[in-house]
Amino acid sequence: MDFREKYGQWAIVLGATEGIGKAAAFEFARRGMDVILVGRRKEALEALAKEIHVETGKEIKVLPQDLSEYDAAEKLISATKDLDMGAVNYVACLHAMGEYNKINYETYEQMYRVNIRTFSRLLHYFIGKFKERNRGAFITIGSLSGWTSLPFCAEYAAQKSYMMLVTEGVAYECKNTNVDVLLLTAGSTITPTWLKNKPADPKAVAAAMYPEDVVKDGFDQLGKTYSYLAGEINRENMQKNRSLDRNEVIEKLGKMFEHMA
Ligand SMILES: NC(=O)c1ccc[n+]([C@@H]2O[C@H](COP(=O)([O-])OP(=O)(O)OC[C@H]3O[C@@H](n4cnc5c(N)ncnc54)[C@H](OP(=O)(O)O)[C@@H]3O)[C@@H](O)[C@H]2O)c1
Fold first, then answer.
1. Active-site residues: which are they?
2. Cα-based angle 37, 38, 43 (whole degrees, multiple of 5)
3. Which of 111, 145, 178, 207 has the fewest CB atoms within 10 Å, counting from its CB?
4. Which domain of life is it from (predicted)?
5. Ligand 1 center–CA 133 separation, angstroms
6. Would strands 60-64 and 85-90 be described as parallel, antiparallel, or unpaired?
7. Residues within 6 Å of ligand 1 by CB
8. Which residue CA neighbors atom 24 of ligand 1 most closely?
9. Calpha distance 100→186 (Å, rounded)
10. How many CB atoms lie within 10 A of CB 216?
11. In sequence order, what are the residues at sequence separation of 6 or more whose Cβ sits closer than 8 angstroms to the Cβ of residue 124?
12. Beta bridge partner(s), residue 139
């Protein structure tokens, strides 16, 4: 599907420098859109912009921005307000691993600003804008961690869960419009961040996907569903876990992540 024709000229990827965000930026360009890359590392973003432009011929802009800055969302809104914005993909999501009280509270505040504050302001702004002209797409990247609580990574799982629930609710609200909202949940995905914190669970490692596959599969679901879990194996594992009670799930995950304490 040509996204440019359906949604508009520009896509913005929040957290585009590497991993799933980089794959998303390529995919938007392959589907006809010009793309704005947002991340903190200007030089890496500029190199990526060149790479995408050479492969796809699309116009690629770089907007270096730390999403944890208090006014990050307002700066991005102001930088894009005169463009024909068609799609948004919120990818960045900070995490911290360890016993809950042993993590510095400032880390949680920084996570909160990227994962909730900036995210929610941009969701609110872009959904309003897209609804006004009755076209556009908003994709939030979710995680299996947000489907349950996650001992030793509890704040991340809770913040992720917030992003996921609000996206699904808004997706339903947009169902009778030409605004497509999708929660695209990824399981283990081979990105630089994942390689740094590779899970101990061999099943999670065996199910790991390439970011390009997560994104391609996920983008195909836009407009067809509110919430999509990428990967056949992830969906099968999820199905098996459905019979477990919440306490059993917490117990299982706690044991798996105990080494992070
Ligand atoms: N990898 C997995 O196994 C997995 C599994 C499930 C869900 N997910 C979800 O998928 C998404 C992407 O994960 P990922 O593994 O690709 O990597 P990630 O570590 O979540 O994201 C890295 C990207 O976000 C940008 N970023 C990080 N902090 C930022 C900040 N303060 N301001 C602006 N940009 C920032 C980074 O670029 P800069 O360094 O240039 O800022 C980079 O492009 C996340 O939402 C994650 O929760 C990942």
1. 156
2. 80
3. 178
4. Bacteria
5. 30
6. unpaired
7. 15-21, 39-41, 44, 66-68, 91-94, 114, 141, 143, 186, 188-189, 191, 193-194
8. 15
9. 24
10. 17
11. none
12. 89, 182
CATH number at residue 197: 3.40.50.720
Ligand 1, from 91, 144, 188, 233: best to mutate by most atoms within 8 Å of Cβ? 91
Global pTM? 0.97
Which of 37, 40, 209 for mutating ligand 1's site (highest number of atoms within 8 Å of CB)? Answer: 40
Q: Which domain holds residue 88?
A: 3-260
pLDDT at 145: 92
- Condensed to tens digits (0 to 9), the pLDDT of residues 85-118 reads 999 999 999 999 999 999 999 999 999 999 999 9
Other C-beta atoms closer than 10 Å to the C-beta of 250 total: 15
Residue nearest to atom 26 of ligand 1 (CA): 15
**pLDDT number for residue 33:** 98
C-alpha distance from residue 40 to each of 55, 159, 253 (Å) = 23, 21, 32
- Share the mean pLDDT of the chain: 95
Instruction: Count how many domains the chain has.
Output: 1
Sign of the alpha-carbon dihedral angle for 213, 219, 224, 226: positive
Which atom of ligand 1 is least distant from the CA of 145? 6
Residues 17-56 have pLDDT tens digits of 999 999 999 999 999 999 999 999 999 999 999 999 999 9
Minimal-distance CA residue to ligand 1 atom 19: 193
